[in-house]
Amino acid sequence: MKNIKTTIKRTSVAILALVAISFQGCNLDLSLQDRLVEESVWSDPNTAELYVSGMYGVFQKFQFGNFPNLGYNNAMDALADGMKFTSNTLGNGTVNTLISNSNYFSPATVGLNFWNPGFVGIRRVNEMLEGVRTKSKLSEEQKIVYEAEGRYVRAYTYFWLAKLHGSLPVFRSLGDYNSKDKPRSSEQEVYDFMIEDLTFAADNLPKTNLSGRATKGAAYGMLSRVALYAGSIAKYDNKQFNTDALTGIPQAKAKEYFGIAANAATKVVELAEEGLYALDADFAGIFRKKDTKEAIFRVDYLAPNITHDYDLGYAPPRDAAGNTLVYGVPTAELVDEFEMADGTKFSWSNPVHAANPYNNREPRFEATILHNNSIWKGRVVNTTEADVVEGFVEFGKSGDPKRTVTGYYAKKMLDPNNTTFVVNKSTQSWVEMRYAEIVLVLAEAKAQLDDYASTTTYINMLRNKRGLNAISVSGNTQAMQAIEHERKVELAFEGHRFWDLRRWRKAHIELNGKKMTGHKITGLGTGYTYEVVSADAVNRSFTGKLYYLPIPENEVQLNLGLNQIFGW
Question: How far apart are the first and last CA of the chain?
Fold first, then answer.
């Protein structure tokens, strides 16, 4: 069967910017002109299509693990424990400031700020919904599909805001903008609103979409992701870190949300059984091939006009001497997480492992990590300190070293065939959601529902496809340990780890008072020595207060109905 997936065609987004601008000045006293513009947009199926297509621009803001106000790919993994940003300078060194000083977060300097662009995007969706319902001459069938797409994008946007702040103002329609003073709704109400939107989207989107936008599978997948997050907050937060009346979700609701997540993920599995999706045996190829069935929702690029700079930011130095930027590199904590090929845990205490630490590792290891003696683009990578171009340099010795500070480079998502990325940039797709994530969501939701047999089944479904042995889990602790391991390894550099630690309320344990490490490798005869070295200049800092980030100060000043989250 033909592979069907959701693909954002970025060419539409640039065109739509011209259309969308006309809706941003709706507070001006130009009602007649404004009405004429709106009516002309919604009466023409072509301009209506451009407007709806343009809403998907929000997915570009988070491509390749970027966070909008940080502006660098893999920034979200660098906020966690799997990647270390190499620079101390302003810009790509900002992540290192955030992870080392929790006091940097405040209402004046939020640190991770998506408030304004998020709510601008939500308003734009609500304008579209109003226009389609009241002004368009589209068929009723097309109106419903557009509404489903709009509500899908709205939920995705709200999800990012909710992960940051928890409690938010909820704008269901343009009528909610009649007053500029809009209070926060409770965190539970925010998640219920997203679930309502995504349920509608899943019910009304087609299984396939030749326009390359949201599909039923993408909506069910997002629903499972959102509900899993809500269930995690309900189970693990318990008002331990913030006593704001509107943040948190009652623990009694946890299983209800996990049930929603399990049911939605099961719907995606059923679509896979129809032939729409599948786990891809070629792990490295998932991030390069345009026909992989693993992609449920992705952003495509097309040279020469629609490109990105992932390879420029992460390729090792000899790929383009003097030009590669090496924003971030994998930590030893991530490298050591990958199992041996036989499924046993890797350990430096094991003399066989320690003698040849990169031999006989599981297949995902070589697809994810470039290490000393890796074969890459026809050469042997040398990450020993002796190599002054590509080898190890101690973090902090240079403000912007543009080489590894851990002894490793990120391989996953690089294009091994791209040798002209400095001039021509890159075109590999960003996979926002893939089938492996949904399998892991289903495994986790089942574990939280005490169905450990199903958890075992879905973990092994993934492990089998990745060439690993089957395991068995019983009990919540063992199940969650296995799921956390699989998510850390399978989804490395895809922007999940930081948010996983937050929803499990483990970030203050894993990311506070610790330094991530690397391996300084030195040649010794015909072998090597591996010295564990710090990749951080100071201890990392994550306090419980950061589970609910403050609302930007200027937003509270403008919206008199908006009170600041307690503690900020």
Answer: 54
